[in-house]
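Sample intake sheet
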Amino acid sequence: MKRSLKTLDITYAAMFVALMAIGANITSWLPFLEVAGIPLSMQPFFCVLAGILLGSRLGAISMFVYLLVGVAGAPVFAQFGSGMGSVLGASGGFLLSYIVTAFVVGLIVERQANPGLKTFMSASFVGIILIYFIGTTYMYFIVNYVLEGTMSYLAAWGIMAWFSVKDLVFTILCALIAPRLYHTLNKTTKLANTRRIA
């Protein structure tokens, strides 16, 4: 039983590592998803979905592995970036926020015995708020205290306003599709466990 669970865990975590890499550079394959010169990254969507479907622990682990893969040199960050420089750059806070977000989102869902649309909607919005708060605050700090630039905290949020509409849409979409995916995944996991015990 433990062996089957471990195999499933690794498979699910690896799947979301791959989805995060695809989500970071989706406009490279689908350029029509770029609006007004702004690439529509799907990373927040996949991060929140990882927390919902994998739970707090495995969701956070999948995001941590994604970060490690990128830091190790694989071009999995936005614009096919990689290395520690991406984490220490102005947008590095978003990469770090994914770990925290997946954990918190998973925790919200786990606290409900039978989570429904309301739970998934709440978890999704908490997730996107966390991503924006951590990422924007980090960007403000890096620009002002590391890069020695000048940016007000309000200006930092003004920049993120360009991305907020698409992330709001993706957040609602995530919450709407989450119930079916969540319950299907649970059934699959239980079936695998039953077969293992048999």
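Comment: The helical segments are 2-24, 26-29, 43-71, 84-88, 92-110, 117-145, 153-197. The longest strand covers residues 34-35.
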